[in-house]
């Protein structure tokens, strides 16, 4: 029996004194459940909400993020959006920066040991984490904590005592650990400690609800079990789907180059969002938009009745750009997008000076930072994705003479190149 099944089977039967659910509690539960993958255990969380309403005591809602990279993208904001929704319902949200657990490295979904980060790397990444998260959360109503506060003081004795509360067999129920163990792939001892340390965070914070992506389910359940061992009421857990990237297939990731960074320029952000498919647009609406589901369902009906999906996608792109920049930036981004769609050139493009004329088109595109390599540049030429002063380039052997001209790669990359 795995940990999730154990949780379900050991669910405490409803108390005879269970609190009735008011309309406000039912509405709060509906808000919490919007777009979620799982809410465990829903009946327990409903009772937590009812008790909170009766006593006037907000719930303590926790989200932990390890600062393994300095920048956040829209995929990260899926769970942050849920935190904001719960924050707006009046509950206390805790943004936990995993400066201690980052030194272990989260093994979730990995088939090799993650190299632990240094303290210096963690501190550098953590500097921008909360600033970026504050673009979604209300920073004035957000409690910021670092898990080194309680993890560092544990020491060797405390770590041994904590480890005694969990068995190796239970830890190895994790799917990624199971696969690695069966394949004979090494699992370092420190990786086995990660779920325990994340779970201990819930004990230290007396969490009522913990949020995470679907890949965090095992870790969240460990927190629930540890709270029982420490005599606390166990937290409920809420998992959010992992947002697909711009390709509509893979999870959004900077390494896969299918991401929208929340600090990217407005025009770039707008253009990327307009590139998603009409089908994927609804997924983005559900997980990223702050519009009500009633309004989103209204948009769906309009599209079914013949409205151009592009109009609805524009509204989504404007909402996201406004959130992370401003309403005026969103309007300017829309104008820039429309100008590009008509074959126009954006007002603000990079100015690049190069030497070596005549210069091969592949080298020119690479040196102008319009393509990562000459091979990629030539591939773009072959696919008809390169233009010079609006004219398509089809000759991969083209030698560009000296002069100043606007070079375009794809729909969104431009540079004004002066070649001498």
From TrEMBL:
The keyword Ligase applies. It comes from Noviherbaspirillum galbum. This is Tyrosine--tRNA ligase. Its EC number is 6.1.1.1. It catalyses: tRNA(Tyr) + L-tyrosine + ATP = L-tyrosyl-tRNA(Tyr) + AMP + diphosphate + H(+). Residues 359-420 form the RNA-binding S4 domain. It comes from the Bacteria. Keywords: Aminoacyl-tRNA synthetase, ATP-binding, Cytoplasm, Ligase, Nucleotide-binding, Protein biosynthesis, RNA-binding. SMART domains: S4. One of its GO terms (molecular function) is ATP binding.
């Amino acid at each position: 029996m795995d940990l999730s099944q154990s949780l379900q089977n050991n669910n405490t039967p409803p108390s005879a004194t269970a609190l009735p659910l008011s309309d406000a509690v039912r509405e709060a539960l509906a808000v919490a459940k919007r777009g979620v993958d799982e809410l465990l255990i829903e009946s327990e969380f409903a009772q937590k909400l009812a008790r909170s309403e009766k006593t006037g005591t907000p719930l303590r809602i926790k989200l932990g993020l390890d600062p393994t990279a300095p920048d956040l993208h829209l995929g990260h904001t899926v769970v942050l959006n849920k935190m904001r929704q719960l924050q707006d319902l009046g509950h206390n949200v805790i943004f936990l920066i995993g400066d201690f657990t980052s030194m272990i490295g989260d093994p979730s979904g990995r088939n090799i040991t993650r190299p632990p980060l240094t303290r210096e790397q963690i501190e550098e990444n953590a500097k921008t984490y909360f600033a970026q998260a504050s673009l979604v959360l209300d920073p004035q109503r957000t409690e910021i904590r670092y898990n080194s506060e309680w993890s560092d003081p544990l020491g060797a004795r405390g770590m041994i005592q904590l480890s005694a509360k969990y068995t190796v067999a239970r830890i190895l129920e994790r799917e990624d650990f199971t696969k690695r163990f069966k394949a004979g792939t090494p699992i370092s001892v420190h990786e086995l400690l990660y779920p325990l340390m994340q779970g201990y965070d819930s004990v230290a914070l007396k969490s009522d609800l913990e949020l995470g992506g679907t890949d965090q389910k095992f870790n969240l359940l460990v927190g629930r079990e540890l709270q029982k061992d420490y005599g606390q009421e166990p937290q409920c857990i809420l998992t959010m789907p992992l947002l697909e990237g711009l390709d509509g297939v893979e999870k959004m990731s900077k390494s896969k180059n299918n991401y929208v960074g929340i600090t990217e320029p407005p025009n770039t952000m707008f253009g990327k969002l307009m590139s998603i498919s009409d089908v994927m647009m609804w997924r983005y609406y559900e997980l990223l938009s702050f519009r009500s589901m009633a309004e989103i369902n209204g948009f769906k009906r309009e599209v079914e009745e013949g409205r151009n999906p592009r109009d609805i996608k524009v509204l989504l792109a404007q909402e996201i750009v406004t959130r992370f920049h401003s309403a005026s930036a969103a309007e300017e981004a829309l104008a820039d997008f429309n100008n590009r769609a008509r074959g126009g050139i954006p007002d603000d493009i990079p100015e690049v000076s190069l030497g070596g004329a005549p210069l091969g088109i592949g080298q020119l595109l690479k040196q102008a930072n319009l393509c990562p390599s000459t091979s990629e540049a030539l591939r773009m030429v072959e696919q008809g994705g390169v233009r010079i002063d609006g004219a398509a380039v089809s000759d991969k052997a083209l030698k560009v003479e000296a002069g100043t001209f606007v070079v375009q790669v794809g729909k969104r990359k431009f540079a004004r190149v002066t070649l001498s």
